[in-house]
## 1
Amino acid sequence: MDTPRPFEPRRDPGDDEDFGAEDVEIDSVGDSAAVADDSAVGSDRAGGRHRLSAPVPQPPAEHGPARVIAVANQKGGVGKTTSTINLGAALAEYGRRVLLVDFDPQGALSVGLGVQPHQLETTIYNLLMERGVEADDVILPTTVEGMDLLPSNIDLSAAEVQLVTEVGREQALGRALKRVLDRYDVVLIDCQPSLGLLTINALACADSVLIPLACEFFSLRGVALLMDTIDKVTDRLNPDLTLLGVLATMFDPRTLHTREVHQRVVEAFGDKVFDAVINRTIRFPETTVAGEPITTWAPNSNGAEAYRLLAREVLAR
Ligand SMILES: Nc1ncnc2c1ncn2[C@@H]1O[C@H](COP(=O)(O)OP(=O)(O)OP(=O)(O)O)[C@@H](O)[C@H]1O
Ligand SMILES: [Mg+2]
């Protein structure tokens, strides 16, 4: 099935002045005095904290071995895929070599980067399940310099069933990625919204987990189960796994509710909550239609700046 492209959103390389009603500025969070400075975007003020923004990193002299970060939350639609694409693109802007791994049979990460997953002959499924298929047979370049994609499509759903009877079934992804780690600085794995075997594979080979949490009423529900799963993977499969951080997404500073949820997230996770906060804005669905990250689609937007801040924080942690 072709990705529906119901409209061609207008590219706006300029500032955010003409954002629609859904577009809101983080600057109005916390206090009512709007700050004109764009650098405050996604700042700590959402949580009422005041930390310095993470430093702008220098491009590395050499590349690899990669840090592997699983972007996970079994709750659907919280911004895992959007965060994987845009964090990856922001890291690439800072000179990092990035591999994005689409580990969801829906293939949304691939679609978000302009790839039609159903047209692919080889995907991560073949890499996991077939001897003789190497990562290089599957990896695709993206429109972002320095950022590659390991695409997936619906075939991956069969892998989850087929892996169950395999020896070392939780380490299939780790085995598949091993050979390319030296080439990249960061590998981001976009997990599907479940705690099944695919997500366990991602956690088993990751150095750390990034949890996007939507600033909505039920967002904290189910997080205990996710943390429990992370603990079990740490105990049984991957003792080095750590929680990289919690990313507040879908933040709408116009509502008290969203600020209250954010406050609860900060109470629950403390310093693990990134200062970067991702506002709810129509810009993100637009980037999916455009098939490119917000950092190139609307480079001066709040959303792009917020993901750049996140990238700096990730590099500093
Ligand atoms: N900050 C945002 N503001 C508004 N819409 C957003 C934002 N982030 C993501 N979206 C949109 O919300 C939808 C879900 O986002 P995304 O696909 O990133 O979530 P997900 O957690 O990967 O979902 P799933 O669990 O289905 O894989 C998408 O249509 C996306 O364009
Ligand atoms: Mg997704």
## 2
Amino acid sequence: MNELVCGDCWRRDHLTFAQRLDPAFIRHGSRYLCPEHRTLRAELCRAAGPVHRHVPDPTENRAA
Ligand SMILES: [Zn+2]
């Protein structure tokens, strides 16, 4: 059985592009994400993150 369907995979397989952008459909998918999409989400989060992106200071890297 395939009870844990990745929400992003589900949308990709069942919705049109326009539907995917519709907030009404965003809630439809399960919250489970496959490892692939979990990684993708993490990367999107990091990219979209705070408006003012933290610019690493050279001295910080040295401290770490
Ligand atoms: Zn997925």
